[in-house]
Records
---
Amino acid sequence: MPDSRDRYELADALSEDGAPRPGEAADAADDGGAGSPRTGAGQDASGGTRRRPLLALGALLPLAAAAAAVVELPPRGAPEAERAATTARPGPLTLLVPGPVQVPQEVLDTATDADLAVTPPSTAVAVGAIALETDSSLLFGRVSGSETRRDEQGEASAPALTLEDAVNTGGSALDATVTAGEVGNTVLGASAVEGAARLGAATAEDDRPVADAVQSTLTPSGDYRSLALTRALPPSAEGIFLGLTTTAGSSAQLVLRNPSSRPATAALQVWTPDGPAAMSGRSQVVVAPGEEQSVLLESIVPDQEALALEVAVQGSPLAMHLQLSERSGLTPGGVEILTPIAAPDRDLVIPGVEVAGTAPTLVFANLRAQDTTAQVEVLGPDGVIDEGSPGEVPVTGESVTTLALESLPDGAVTVRVRADAAICAAVRSPIAGADLAGSTLGAPVDLAVLVPAPSLTSSGIVALPPGGGHGWLTLAAEADTTCTLITVAADATTSEPIVRELAADTSTVVADPSLRAGGAQPVAVVVVPDQPGAVRAAWMQREQDGAGGVLHSAVTVVPSTATGEGTSIRVED
């Protein structure tokens, strides 16, 4: 407890009206004013006991009680920190369109004879894109506008799609047709894009939608006769390319583009059937902000029938694609514009491989030092095709392995690979056209390089060329399930749900005539399996070359993960 001095100091602090302290008031009362006789110690004027100590004590009792209350309160601790919490929502999506086929300058420099001059490829590409609100009924296998959010005017919410020039600074808008539908869907079509482009996609609330974009480049004749479908992707910090060749007349050109304001360095490693290639000082490529760099693999590892390329980026992520062109003497062998494939895995499924008189080639890349084995099966509509399934195949470590898939019937099949260790795989699928005039020329060939398709854990989408999908959808089922398909036309209208029963270990083809929305060619397809993860799918596009031949190229169906839900972030101690 505090002593008497502390109590008086506390009383002074608590006094608000300027009254004398209790002791002083008692002294004034005892003195009785001037000339009043003083009493003896401990007595009042009448000789009794003095009242001053009692009065002082009485005045101090409430103050002492207050002081005790103040002193005996538990010390106040630091206030409990409030932990910040928020939700990080993915913003609008940006996809980069590679642009048309580029003829390497080295090829132009060597073609000096006018009679042997290079016939250039098409200088423009077509771009098709689709974007869906994350709650669009299409993602659940239904066509229901009432289940899509609407604004105050009753209009259905729909994503925004834009297309800009990605080469010039500031990027001007490109000519494209954008149409919104009634079920939270928007489609974009551009038929004459002459360079690299940047596609933006955002929901009605400016979040990230479910979206896909594909470019197609068609050259009906000449040295670069081909059809190539290529998916538009965001920049990446790594990539693996497979199905390449650098034999005589062939070219594999890696194109790296830096869309950011920071420099980047790409480390390259080429793998051959004999192991990792010596890069001869070409393993590092610096890409300045806003610039583009190209690397010809034939200048590093010439005359190789099978190659794999691994790219690892430091600094800003890069947009990357690989342009593969082939020729046998003077006969065109096709062109593909490839984007990075998925990371190595033990379970790989490649749907939509077209067999047309020539055996497709399965290509493995084992980037690890350890050898492994892979079990290879080919699936058709009735299940595993035993005669055309190679079975167990050894895959050497740190190398590329090829295998011809013989004895397969013509049509579309699925190749399934199950390996003991994670590897990469792709299939080269050639298709021959009509014979060219001249005794020294054979039938031209168009090449499609097919890659593993991801498992559809909920639903999947694929954008098609704006002119419409001409070809077929291949559905590879790993279990008995039901699959619902909905197609979208160029005017954003949709088909009624199309239901297919799929048996385990089968490959089912759904051709475009049965996928038309109101009679119109589809520009996008939504795939919704009843059992999550049981289906993988790919689209094979086919076009006529005008001379009796067929051109083809394929693109996988990608999972339509609802990326607009956001991620919760909480700050901890």
---
Amino acid sequence: MADQNVPPRRPRDDRGWDAHQHPTTDGYHDPHASYGYGTPPPHPADPRAAYAHPPAAPARGPQWVGPEGFGRTAPPAGPAGGGLPNLDDDEPGRRVGRRKALAALGGTAAVVAGGAALAMTPQVRSLFGGEEVVAGDATGATVTDGTPARPSGQQPSTVRTYTEQNESYMGSSAGEALKKNAPSGGRTFSGPAAAAAETKVSVKTVLAKDPVVHLARRLTFGATPQVLADIRERGIDGWIRRQLEPEQIAPTKAELKLADLPTLKLSPKQLREQREQLNERGAQPHRELVDATIARQIWSDRQLFEVMVDFWNDFLHVAADFDGGEVYRGSFDRDVVRKHALGSYPEMLLAANRHPALLLYLNQNDSRADAVNENLARENLELYSVGVDGGYTEADVRQAALLQTGRGINDGAYVFRPERHYVGKVKILGFTHANSSQDPKKAEAAIDAYLTYIALHPSTAKYVAQNLATRFVSDTPPKSLVNRLAKTYTANKGLIKPVLMTLFSSSEFWAGVGQKVRRPMEYLVATYRTLGVQPDAAPNHDNGDNRRTPFARGLRQIQDRMRELGQYPMGQPTPDGYPDVYVAWTSAGAMVRGWNEAGDIAAGYRTTFTHTKPEKLVAKPPTTAGAYVDALAKRLVHQKLTDRERTLILGVAGLSAGDRVDASLNGAVTAVVRAILASPQHHLR
């Protein structure tokens, strides 16, 4: 007889959880939330809900499910509202107030037209007695798009549901200012070293024009003394070649410690089968995936690979927190993004379109010949290949949606259901196919032929090239570079390494010093890297009940802090991924929180890791304040500061350049380290 106290099991859906029950209320909570920064926020509302409109009234032919034109808002650039946390108040005896000195030094900031330094945004200036904040978006960027759904056959460029994020932001007044200080053109050399040697940096920037430091800033998540020494030892060409072969680079201690995350290597099938045991242990697969990504960004020696993983996670984006991410997002990371990050984009797109994560995220599992859901078909065109201005029409979207019917998920695995597949000739962006059979091999071959076609389309070549150039060169990359990268992409049938080699061998890359600002996540990762934080627990760490290792707890603390800053790996809930331009991230709150976190890291407050004491950052500290600040700047931002910047930082310490100091900078070394990490030199990448 059944136990009267045990509720009957509900049927489980293909997301791996009980049907009609959200995982955040079905056991996947974090019993150790108090070890981080408090209870993490719940899953956001299902991002696919914006697409899930009821089908049209019954009519002849298939019914359609698709977007109805909804408002698009910019991603949060840091937490909204609330007071500013523990930015030091001015202290008696300080010759320059810490708050004003930090404000003068820091800020995620736009390169002003014709200027040599960074200009704070109006929001930041208002915090420190500057001009009043103007209501609305301070950058002038348009952040909503409430246009109606596209009529069939009309060009998407005239009636959009999404805008191309980076170009939309850069169309603002702030974007126009940035364009005036970006490289305007260039050429490709025989290799990266030759391009570096022959390129003159003419743009105005606060960064030193050292090609080795520039390379380390752009191809890693933050330069470190070890990375700089490695580049100089191997040479620019040798170091890049090594980074393009990540499988030849040994895992670091931190990467080996990823074994502390129990769900990381489990398959979707194992995650489904072990769900109850994992619940009891407080393991959250989608959050452990983010934890692991953060660890690799900070500590992996395969830095270019991790940068490209982050790039593809924004380009071919599936949110970690979607309803189903608990089971499938880790596999998508391994089998789609990481497998192809330095390989073939057409193969990546093919793999993504057979993966349960993408099929669930964009409702393809619900699409069949008599009730077509167009979400995946639309995003394959608009976001994952040719782009919003790539030349497709609404008719193309619907033809693609018909062709892709039949693909779905059963019992946690990809399946093709021939009875759901539409049969009939299709024509999409010049691609035509008879699509005359429900036979799985023939039908799937037709779908794969179409996906390969759009992955190699000239508009896709340009779209990938534009995004890569935006990532590695500037927010407004020169058309000359984009065109050369697109040509390489086409000539090599979508292989990524040749495109990257063309990019790194181009004068535009080497001329773009100081033209990129770190996003909040990148700022925090770079801070951990430059401070030399190690993945072992500090001797004074109290690990509580030991149910989770210090390493696992520490990574979760970093993730929670990133969530507060408004950006974390795979965190954008909508399919467009995070924007990669400065004006999308202007936030005084996120900036100040970043400064405070840098101070906490420098002070060693995160005892789940081992920190270098601030007074040990410089091997042999000078005995005068000015020389000591110079040595710290060289160690942390890899260049000297200007005389004005040094004076401001000495003001933070209440010292003059000639004052005698000890290794603790007379007790001010932590404050000075934080001030240097608030400087433009650390905010830029």
---
Amino acid sequence: MSKPSKRRGREGRMKQAAAPDPSPPVWPGVMGGRLKPLSSEEVALVEEAMFTLLETLGLSQAIPSMQKKVVAAGGSMTADGRLLFPRALVKKAIAEAKRDFTLCGQVSERDLCLEKARVHMSTGGAAPGVFDMDSGEYRPATLADLYDAARLVDCMENIHHFSRPVVARDVEDNALMDINTAYACLAGTSKHVSISITEPQNVPAIAELCYAIAGGEEAFRARPFLTVMVCHVVPPMRFAEEACEVLEAAINAGFPVQLISAGQAGATSPATIAGSLVQAVAETLAGLVFARLIDPEAKAIFAPKPLVADLRTGSMSGGGGEQAILMAAAAQMGRHFDLPTSSIAGITDAKTLDAQYGAEKSLAVAMAAHAGSNIVTQAAGIHASLLGVSLQGYVSDNDLLGNILRTVRGVEATPENIAADVIAQVCLGPGHYLGEKHTFNRMKSDYFYPHIGDRRTPTEWHEDGSKDVGEVAKEKAKELLSEYFPTHLSDEVDQVLRDRFDIQLSRAQIGRSV
């Protein structure tokens, strides 16, 4: 770890590099939604099947508070203990759900507007392992790895949101892990953070930590900078009781929530893409009904995230075309309901930054983004079918995501952009566009330039060591990790947190004087 004095010099350079471009080629919230893999007739079939499942089959294992709220709102319990959701109740939840809200950063410049089909890229994963940059082997993830991932993402302009990517396996107690996970993420980046919480009794401590950072409970409720991700179901069509209790506690504490259904096709959801989609949508909307009955003002994100298995082995197959089209369809259903939506995409099965990694990640992320998912999780860093995270992957994926966002931005065919007058001037004049003011003015606004992607000649590349993108990304990641330590949490606030909670990361580990 570098000393604070060394950090300050680099910090100044980072701030200068991070200064917003007045005419960027891509930005957080580029408008997607043009890709529609489902026809209007197929959307209607999915919707009808979903409504029918919820009102006739329902879900089992609803917690008592959910049963009470849903029944009071018009639902019913079957003799075998399944909670039924009438169509009118589900439609009411969809129609009255909170829309067009902001996921706040700890600083306002990092705010994300979840409006219509605006697209934002995110990490994610809950991986147990990390691809070690020095050994080239996988090892158990640590709390320090989580903090390192957060501060790397803090520097990546095309990764807009930080969803907890690894589980800190060096912290065994669940309560201690939850509070330290929140701390590591929030200390590592000022971007909006999403985490999961293992047990409902751990929610108050996470809330207290967030209130302390925000300057009070009222301040946090006005600008919540942390979302609680909740897998409220155990597919097929069964509630996860403890997770539902976490959901209720999180909403009551003022957290935005992400409502996740993650069945696995052929195992815990139907083997067909359409069947898996219908089940995931139904399970997610059941969670939305409950969330709104807890608090009609709840900021809830629709997050059907069904996964795909290789049916020859039963193992996850996150990099295939099936996963890509399933996520695009799930995003399309979110746009159909006009709900803030999150999709899981980029779960490559590759084990390192190779051709498989780039191909699989690009395919799935691009499709979810073009379909209009507001938050595309697992878009950066994750690989090995959710079993590992690559820190240098964040650096290389920052380029990949910038290019994808440029395609989402689209052609923008307007009279000004078509520039027929410029075409005429060039054809009647110099015969090329290189010296035109129009060309100069559009160099930055219309073109995305990669940070580590290599566009040199083969000779230049060879003379510079013939490094592949993984090597270049590793060098950049190591440089950033040695010199960049965020300071959006003041020393005073950090000390308050350490006085109240058992923070496992030392001040030296976060680049502060002891």
---
Amino acid sequence: MAESGQRYERYEGGSPEAERLVFERLAKELMEVQLRNGRTGGGMSRAFHAKAPLAVENARLRFHDDLPAELRVGFARPGAEYPATVRLSNASGIRQGDGAPDLRGAAVRVRVGEDESHDLLATSHPVSHARDAREFVGFAKAMAGADTPLRKAFGLFVKLPLTVGVGAAIRMRRTIRAATRRTVTSLATETYFSRGAVLWGDAGPVHYLLRPAQGTAPALAPDREDPDFLHREIAGRLARTEVVFDLCVQRFVDERRTPVEDASVEWKPETAPVVPVARLTVPRQDVDEAAARAAAERVDELAFNPWYTTAEFRPLGNINRARKAAYHASSAHRLGLAFVTPEPLRNRLLTPPVSAAFGLLNRAVPWHRLPLPLSLLNLVFLRRTLRRHNLIDTEPREAPPRAQPVPPPPPERLRTERSYDGTYGDLSVPGMGAVGAAFGRNLPPDHRPDLFDTPNPVTVARELLHRERFLPATSLNVLAAAWIQFQVHDWVNHRRHGPGERSVEVPLPPGSAPWHNTPGGPAEQLMRFADNVGLPVPEGRPPILFGNTASHWWDGSELYGEDERTARLLREPDGGAGLRLEDGHLPLGPQGLPLTGFQDNWWMGLSAMHTLFAREHNAVCAALRAEYPSMGEEHVHQTARLVVSALIAKIHTVEWTPAILATEAIDLALRTNWQGPPRNWLDRLGLWLFEAHSLKGIPKTLPDHHTAPYSLTEDFVTVYRMHPLIPDDFELCEHHFGQRLETVGFTDIQGAAAEPRIRKTGLANTLYSFGIAHPGAITLHNFPRALRHFERDGEIIDLAVVDLVRTRRRGVPRYNDFRAGLHKRRIRSFEELTENADTLGRLKEVYRSVDEIDTVVGLFAENPPTGFGFSDTAFRVFILMASRRLQSDRFLTVDYRPEVYTPLGIDWVEKGGMNSVILRHCPELAALLPRDASAFAPWRTVRPGTDGGSDD
């Protein structure tokens, strides 16, 4: 049935997908119109039809017994009667007096059944002032906030021609004058026209209209000084009698006389006869009594949309197709489910030339070599460029739009709680960022099956990645390595096929020793490991779309789990708010692994992080119970989840990241992300001129997804391949006197061996041992030996090879294309990448050209800026996604407030940090933590034979 409607339509840009992108941009512009109207008209309202003189829930629609046979479609059956909701309104988006020149509108929701309803929207003029959605939104922008005759004139005669062109503006003004010059005395005596076409099953396109039933009495002369005279008139009328309209249709004749795409052309009755099909009755009632007023308020909360119907009655034409996205965005904005932050005019005018100037400057001087104020401003413009060009939505979207039932409102509890699976992270798009949502992209995917094994990834790993000697990152400690794995487990996880289902096969280079792919398995001349499970993709697109089995939101799911069943299992018995602990440690489950939200690739460092933050959750619970004795256990648990997740996000933003990117510019930039810029007038002036949105810390702003719906990306996954951070051996020490307890290899503290070891060592000694030890540097020739022959899920893998293969098969561009896509100059020779003679020789042996270099290899080989723990190319994905993870999340922006977190919860996050978490649960470590640095910097070492300062 939908296909039968499409034959009447022509898509802007030549395809439904191209048109969808246009409509999404127009929908955002409409939200900005709504915001400006709200500032003028006394609060956020509908983008159009803000004021409703009548809104009732108890109307009825009955189809005529003699309904023509060709119009008997779906719910349109002879004699069928349905309840209906009716809203009659003034068309303006500003709540103004009823006497102001304006159109009037009718919105009717016909309720056929629990899962079926039909929204009919009509306006009191037979044609639209706009031919298409661009003109419609252009008119709305020109007239936004026009609440006086002077402002209306300025909008019509100055702003409108600039927006839509002189010719279109003249035509639109002519239509508006014709539509509004007539005096309206009663909403009951107006005729309301759909103006756009809808499908009527096999009968094809129709226009519909609601006209007063024969015998409707004219209105008395109104008191036009009364701003609410239309309400008083129809209220008085309904107090005496019912109000009745005939629902009529006009059928499509031909594209010239009854066009579907151009809503500004009238379907004249002499060409398309008006056929009555049903009668809409608003019963006699007192609309001013309490129950009726309450009903009117409920109706005013409704989001009407012509796409809330069935495929047999789907809307047709450009304006109608735009309405789905536009009305959804407008209603979500009005109801506080979606948000928009307009960019000040000064920012829009000044940004392009200054951004271009920085682009030219950076050809000679990279941002990190500029003086501090300039480097900070450079980062602002770099992030703007990345937001504009490097957020690519991969989630399949409906194009063209499809009819749908009225969506249910968000569950009330999820307005103030995180769901476990990430749904309703954005209340207006429940599935955004949820478990199973597709990974997005920062760069267009480059799917090259012909290069999957070129050069051989085993050769690349052996020659360029495998650790030959341990290269330490001396500015960090091993807690930094454990922390990032702790975070990545919250953010990203690709689902893998089960054993024997579907494998990737990588041939070994000639002369290689055989490989055992399973414990005790046969020797083979290839490496084999489970392939990722892809998502279905539209025909013709490469099969490189993958879903995230974690939620994309920063929600602590590595602690709490990705579904409610797991979450309940992890909690204290009988619905307690806390997480289950046994003697301060996570309880053990099958195979000796702990019960926690995510336990893959488990080792002692992860155990320390999970144990520490499980204890922190329970400490928050105890504090909430003490401060708010009437708070139930479920409320305590959910609030503690919010607090701990936000604290983790803050620690990562203002502590871990500045520790690994140890420069003053990054430290200032990330603290600005969380708490706003310093009180330096020059920095604040720069932001005021160029990016006023950053004058406050992100938690004090509104959610903003920028140019694509929120998701984490495949490119983000690639730059967080930081396995070189893991050492191959560890010295476990006692923190009181610095005595060595034992030296262990990674395999000794990995998998099921981790929990007995941390219980034996103790959390405080474990944290101390990792706090004084250095992780590996993120560079070539430093991939942990223990991960080169790593047993996982019944497979033996070389994780270095897997990293290379996964990145290639997921369509992440090779290194040179990757850096060019992130607005860095391409390298033209191997010498530009490294000055190390040995590495240079190996690169030339392995790769035929610089364009063939693997992304992971290039990122590790690149000389990073001074103080950086990873490359500037990787940093570009980071600077884009680091703020995005905060900015998109309502629980870290608009709902980061005492009403949701409680005052205690907000205080806990704002005053907390990694040091406070460690000291709350291991106070004996106070003297060992760095005094003027993050807990991820090297700790003070206690020399054997001295007193470490403990009071134990």
